[in-house]
Amino acid sequence: MLNNYPLWKYLSVILVFVTSIIYTLPSLYRDHPTIYIAQCALDKNYQEMDDILLCQIKKILTYEEIINKSIVLQANKIRIQFFHEQDQLQAYQKLSTIFSKKYQILLCNTPNIPHWLSAIKAKPIKLGLDLCGGIYFVIHANTKTVLDKFQEQYIDSLRTILFEKNISYLKIYKIKNHDIEINFQNSNYRNKAILPLSEIDNDLILHAIGTNKLHVIFSERKKNAIREHAIHQNCTILHHRIHQLGITEPLVQRHGSDRIIIELPGFQDIEKIREMLGTTASLEFRLVNSAISEFEINNNLIPEDSEIKLSNNGYLIPLYKRIVLSGDNIINSNVSLDEYNRPQVNISLDKTGSTLISNFTKNNIGKAIATLFVEYKDNGKKDSKGHAILIKHEKVINIATIQSQLSDNFRISGINNLNEARHLSLLLRMGNLAAPIHIEEERMIGPILGKQNIVRGFTACALGLLTSICFMILWYHYFGLIASVALIANLILMISTMSIIPGIVLTMPSIVGIILTLSVAVDANVLINERIKEEIKQGKPVQYAIYTGYRKALTSIVDANITTIITSIILYLIGTGPIKGFAITTIIGVGTSMFTSIVGTRAVVNLIYGKRRINKLSI
């Protein structure tokens, strides 16, 4: 038969639409205003979450007559859900007054969906800042500091190679543009050094200057690669930090050469997020230069491979400049007590860090190694480009003797108290930023404007959909009704697809993309119906007219939609946030409209008219 699907095709179409309806359901449920109470990662007065605190909060809310939907302790965080925003704000004010110094108290919205939907990973479609309100940050990353750090590391590598090759030199020092210059005794030593130094890195350019100088230049490709890596790592670390606060789906994306945009839909507590983002602490492990005497320290007679750092107790500690291990290689940390009941921080390293520390400690047993705590703070001043000037603060928090070869797990001991150990462990878990950052711009968008945008957007969508349905039914009668059902199915498919795919956020431009896609989606049905009408006018049998109408319209439909998809892909690749949202929505909408207009309507038509002798169509 011309117009007949096998059973499996009908079942496949039904399965697709039933699944799409199920995964659209969470978007129909209203979010609940929520307060999260979590441990304060930046506070040394660490307080553990327990049932006693939970009962205390319940008593406070009951005494203040604040109605809440639920209050639970989960994953060391307390979550309080409310029915109304007024109750949420009232509870926030009261709980902040009591607990803000000990805990982080965060305002947000959480989805209110049945357990069976959560069990199958069905989630509501994620809303952008312009629809649900929230916090918007523009972060500037100081990539100059990263280049300074790499310059120091290369200077150390140059010294090591010159020492191993027994090539004498007078001085190695920094010059502008992060280049390095080496002074030798004469041209023979300089020429002898060129070959081994050139093998350090293919992106290092060596120039002989005068009779005894060697100019070491970083290529622009190398500098750009260093900056790219720093920005990428900062994005990853910031995403991880925000996730630790219970914000599960933040938007963290690069903007320009040295900026990062962070969007936190649904959150209103800007102070807590600002405090968390501003933490730029890291660790460096360096060998103590025990050969330097107190007399040399007091008279500033320090060799060029070493420098003096201040300890927690106010002592001056001579350290080698070479960094044995940095916080970049730390993947986890936790607090425990040693055999004498003293606090210690247990550290786990990645594969690279494990290799570095293992090789180093193997060859330096009996020597002292120091843990240097490094933090960058804004001094309140701006440079010539308007960027905040960050001041580097350093202190030695621990000195230990290397007693054996270390592996991927070791501990830092000698910490003053348990709260300090917890504070250090939390900072390490938050991740080590590759480049210091500061907040360049911040905005808090209220939820009221977002609600107005949602109402207006979906009103426009409903009006556009209703207009298309009326036109199709009036013009194509019964086939128009089938096309209208396909339009509604297309909308459901779009919403379910956008809620399933990670990273897709519904914004006003996305709603525009939905409206446009629904308006254009009827084109395919118009092409099909007009082809069928032409075949009937030519005197062809009805079954043959239906078959030929779908077959002849297919090429035109595919060609038109492919060109739209190609244009949308280009928009997505070169566009910014709002344009990307519009492009990805259009791509999804074109795909779902092709499925509903070609496969979906054909299945309905075959089910109604297939295997029947028909003399007239309602079209």
From TrEMBL:
> Where do the SecDF P1 head subdomain domain residues begin and end?
314-435
Q: Any idea where the Protein export membrane protein SecD/SecF C-terminal domain is? A: 437-605
Keyword Transmembrane in the entry? The reply is yes
Main subcellular location: membrane
In which compartments does the protein localize? Cell membrane
Instruction: Cite the Protein translocase subunit SecDF P1 domain residue spans from the record.
Output: 232-289
Ribonucleoprotein listed as a keyword: no
Q: Where is the SecD export protein N-terminal TM domain?
A: 2-105
Keywords linked to the UniProt accession: Cell membrane, Membrane, Protein transport, Translocation, Transmembrane, Transmembrane helix, Transport
Pfam hit, one: SecD-TM1
Membrane topology of the entry: Multi-pass membrane protein
Subunit-level organization? Forms a complex with SecF. Part of the essential Sec protein translocation apparatus which comprises SecA, SecYEG and auxiliary proteins SecDF-YajC and YidC.
Indicate the family of this protein.
Belongs to the SecD/SecF family. SecD subfamily.
Q: What does this protein do?
A: Part of the Sec protein translocase complex. Interacts with the SecYEG preprotein conducting channel. SecDF uses the proton motive force (PMF) to complete protein translocation after the ATP-dependent function of SecA.
- This chain's protein is named Protein translocase subunit SecD
Q: Which organism is it from?
A: Candidatus Blochmanniella camponoti
